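Database export, one record per block. Field names are fixed; values are copied verbatim from the stored entry.
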Amino acid sequence: MKNRPSLNLLAPVFALSLLAAAPAQSCATALLLAMDVSNSVDAGEYRLQVEGTAAALRDPQVIEGLTLGTGGAVAVMQWSGAGMQEMSIPWTRVSREGEVLALSGQVASMPRAFIGANTALGDAMEQAIAAFGPVNECRRFIIDISGDGSDNSGSDPAQARRRAARSGITVNALAIEGLGAAITRYYKEQVITRDGFVETARGFTDFARAIRDKMRRELSQVMF
């Protein structure tokens, strides 16, 4: 009779075959925060954006949404005039509370990338669309773009919006209003994708509340 392989010897081989066949883990959502630092944003308003974003990343509901399941990925881009976009914080994987809090600290200390330029919203959107390569295994892609003015330089935001939709990327917006709701209307008509939404901040002092509520809403849609 031929000797049969020991079950103890086969077990590791079987386990390795299962690992090889298992698909790579993917994150729930990749969220790119695109922050306006154009000429209309003064130093104090920049700090309100930075501190508001950092505070939102410390919010328990936001942390839960980012760390659920296999976790998520977050990047922060600053944008201004034509050709002026900087990935200030590259894609950062987060699956634990401590990692999100560490990211919050990075945002809080982030230096301003540009001072004194136009508002090239379309260029910012195009750059954001092109940035998702390193996180292409995520199940959902979101551009979270904030600003206090309409486009006045560079490429067409509506064209970038169509490109984002074709690429399966959701574009949401945070409109920082002065008086009235002109920026909110502009973002609804020219910037967000059909599956996106606009959150309105009533001035820069309302930014922290608005970005927190916006991120809660974005992440609640991927909590499953």
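Remark 1: Residues 27-220 form a domain with the Rossmann fold fold (CATH 3.40.50.410).
Remark 2: The CA atoms of residues 201 and 210 lie 5 Å apart.
End of record.
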